[in-house]
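Sequence, please.
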């Protein structure tokens, strides 16, 4: 699905993976669910691109619903997978997420997400045997030249990726526009965070970031700009 010039999405919004194109080459941001591997060639074709044009896969963090087809892409196509250094062990399967929050579940959204997990291969993570890492503030030498903003809270190594050339911010699960457990929509802290107070504190790192388009790991694109998204999330923060 085309989101904006040079940006496409795989998935219908429950779990998102993104394709970022620059100069005929592609960076994938998050690998969604393992079954998205079958959708990847078709989505690349709609961009006039192919698997041969994919140069990098960047993970906003290493939870199972973002790792998806990453190891298969690395193994079969030789595409390097990169993640923040603090989530590298999680990506390699050496540790598992701790203290995840499951607050506010409602039966129908939970059942929908469970059904998605069963049918899209999310019940078991596939470790990425080799990962490269990045740190806070780095501008990555991949198509789109995203700048890394470390956003600890959802996971220790969660990161947002700012792409000024596309007026876009890929936020991973630092901000969601859909809570997959409650069904709530609009900018909010994502479900399954390991450190909710830390996730709220990290939002301050996005103040001053200029991007009209905010692209979350779960939910629809937010087109009202980073500042307004932050205002909505922070207004709903429990006191």
């Amino acid at each position: 699905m085309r989101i904006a010039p040079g940006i496409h999405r795989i998935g219908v919004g429950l779990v998102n993976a993104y394709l970022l194109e620059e100069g005929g080459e592609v960076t994938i941001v998050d690998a969604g669910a393992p079954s998205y591997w079958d959708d990847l060639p078709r989505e690349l074709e709609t961009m006039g691109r192919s698997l041969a044009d994919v140069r990098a896969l960047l993970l906003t963090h290493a939870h199972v619903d973002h790792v998806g087809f990453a190891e298969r892409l690395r193994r079969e196509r030789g595409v390097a997978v990169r993640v923040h250094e603090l989530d590298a062990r999680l990506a390699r399967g050496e540790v598992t997420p701790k203290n995840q929050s499951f607050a506010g579940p409602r039966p129908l959204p939970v059942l929908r997400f469970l059904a998605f997990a069963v049918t899209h291969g999310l019940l078991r993570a596939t470790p990425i045997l080799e990962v490269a890492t990045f740190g806070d503030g780095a501008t990555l030498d991949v198509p789109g030249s995203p700048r890394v903003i470390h956003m600890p809270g959802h996971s220790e190594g969660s990161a947002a990726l700012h792409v000024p050339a596309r007026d876009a911010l890929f936020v991973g699960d630092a901000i969601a526009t859909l809570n997959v457990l409650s069904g709530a929509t609009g900018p909010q802290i994502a479900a399954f965070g390991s450190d909710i107070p830390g996730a709220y504190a990290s939002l301050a790192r996005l103040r001053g970031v200029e991007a009209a388009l905010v692209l979350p790991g779960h939910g629809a694109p937010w087109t009202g700009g980073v500042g307004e998204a932050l205002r909505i999330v922070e207004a709903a923060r429990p006191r």
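Residues 107-120 form the longest helix (14 residues).
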